[in-house]
């Protein structure tokens, strides 16, 4: 039986990854944190009985994604009091941060079904079969949504590329 210390160590090691996935799914940091907390509460109650789970990380990611989907389905019941500022680190001018923010914006332009598949396949590193189980659809549907989602990402990123190039050129011209 797993001890409470094992649970704490497991959660501390994976919390940043779980929060990142949840934020991508729901698009709001507060609701993402709520979904992660709900999933981790359920995980805590089940912790002692999880000895037969083959891939604990996939199991927990599935719990988080399902909690996020539940929050997205019930978002009409929540009142949004203000817009959240974007999550940018202190050094917001770095190229890596700009690329991440651009990718995140492109992901949120995708339809929800495509976004979910892309997040689970490429950010959670889940195989097609596991994504199909999580989203309760066929493997063919996962493959199709992956194809269309990646195509949509390419289009969105190509649309943004000239605007970013213009800004960079303009900055260089002033320096």
From TrEMBL:
Has UniProt tagged this entry with the keyword DNA-binding? Answer: yes
Ranges where the RNA polymerase sigma factor 70 region 4 type domain occurs: 103-151
- Which key words tag this protein in UniProt? DNA-binding, Sigma factor, Transcription, Transcription regulation
GO annotation (BP), single: DNA-templated transcription initiation
List, alphabetically, the Pfam families matched: Sigma70_r2, Sigma70_r4_2
Q: InterPro entries, alphabetically?
A: RNA_pol_sigma-70-like, RNA_pol_sigma-70_dom, RNA_pol_sigma-E_actinobac, RNA_pol_sigma70_r2, RNA_pol_sigma70_r4_t2, RNA_pol_sigma_r2, RNA_pol_sigma_r3/r4-like, WH-like_DNA-bd_sf
Q: Which GO terms describe its molecular function?
A: DNA binding; sigma factor activity
- Say yes or no: keyword Transmembrane present: no
- In this chain the RNA polymerase sigma-70 region domain maps to 11-77
Family from the record? Belongs to the sigma-70 factor family. ECF subfamily.
This chain belongs to the protein called: RNA polymerase sigma24 factor
Q: What is the lineage of its organism?
A: Bacteria, Bacillati, Actinomycetota, Actinomycetes, Micromonosporales
